[in-house]
Design a protein that fits this description.
By secondary structure, the chain is an alpha+beta fold. 50% of the residues lie in helices and 8% in strands.
């Protein structure tokens, strides 16, 4: 009987050892399976993370300061809502002319060429202040960065107290609409030489670093959200005076409106008379060719000339 019991005990001990060994093997397999799952999962996460990084890099390829990224630095003396206007003229004037324009816009140049002398005369007499808002419409429609860089350079000129003079120089020397010459800082600096005292190390640094690019971008965004007709947009004391084809504006009419508001008796002036081009266009001082940026569009018209409004 004793021998039988001993044999049974040995068999039980062997079975127990085999079961323990089997259990250990199963446990080890489970550990190995978990370890492999963790390795694979980690690899997948790593691949996804790498893909995300590559995606961010790709998304930002080609972006630069010309997009207006970075902190907004308004030029010295900027005024109006969010400090987005540059004001010229004397304090206390009874009338305010608000001008939205783009340094690459041909219709804006037409306005400036035909109304410049009248506007400056009214400013010098203390009857008119002008608030300029700079827009980059043509950059978006024609591609390029000349509108942005010229506007930044004009804001740099404002820092130097030379905005009005440099503003006029830029429009007088405006390149052809398809020629993005103002995208070159060298050209903007060259033109600064026509304004006495402007071409300084500070001005050059401001132009080359795009100091006011973000401010210009914010100004353009205000133009876009304002849903204006196009460039140029001209408001006299809050009223759009430049888009009425039935009663087209002329330099003489502008002069009379401002003088009347100031209580000054209007006197005919040969220098303020509209040029033939101004009378013909009734919109921008000269008649831009159809299809060019900034071309005139009658209010309510469904036909939009390229460059007049954003795509």
């Amino acid at each position: 009987m004793s021998e039988k019991n001993d044999g049974a005990n040995r068999d039980a001990t062997k079975r127990s050892a085999r079961e323990r060994l089997q259990a250990e093997r199963e446990q080890q397999k489970k550990k190995e399976k978990r370890r492999r799952a963790l390795l694979v999962g980690g690899a997948v996460v790593g691949v996804l993370a790498l893909a995300a990084v590559v995606g961010v890099i790709a998304a930002n390829t080609g972006k630069s300061d010309k997009s207006g990224a970075g902190p907004v630095a308004a030029p010295s003396g900027a005024t109006g809502k969010d400090a987005l206007a540059i004001r010229t003229g004397k304090e206390g004037a009874r009338s305010t002319l608000v001008v939205w324009e783009d340094f690459r816009c041909p219709a804006c140049k037409a306005f400036e060429d035909n109304y410049r002398d009248t506007v400056h005369d009214l400013e010098n007499r203390g009857l008119l202040t002008v608030e300029y808002h700079l827009v980059t419409l043509i950059d978006g429609n024609m591609r390029g960065s000349g509108s942005l860089k010229a506007a930044n350079a004009a804001a740099c000129a404002q820092d130097a107290g030379k905005f009005a003079e440099y503003h006029d120089v830029l429009f007088k020397n405006q390149p052809q609409e398809t020629d993005d010459a103002y995208a070159k800082n060298a050209r903007l600096l060259e033109l600064a030489g026509q304004v006495q005292g402007l071409d300084t190390p500070e001005f050059r640094s401001c132009v080359e670093q795009g100091t006011h690019n973000s401010w210009v971008a914010k100004s353009h965004e205000a133009f876009r959200t304002g849903k204006f007709r196009g460039t140029p947009t001209i408001l006299l004391d809050g009223k759009d005076i430049f888009g009425d084809q039935a009663n087209p504006l002329t330099p003489q009419k502008l002069k009379e409106k401002v003088e009347a508001n100031a209580g000054v008796a209007a006197k005919p002036s040969a220098s303020a008379s509209p040029s033939p081009a101004a009378s013909a266009s009734g919109r921008s001082g000269s008649a831009p060719k159809a299809g060019t940026a900034g071309s005139a569009v009658p209010p309510g018209s469904k036909t939009v000339s390229k460059g007049t409004t954003e795509d």
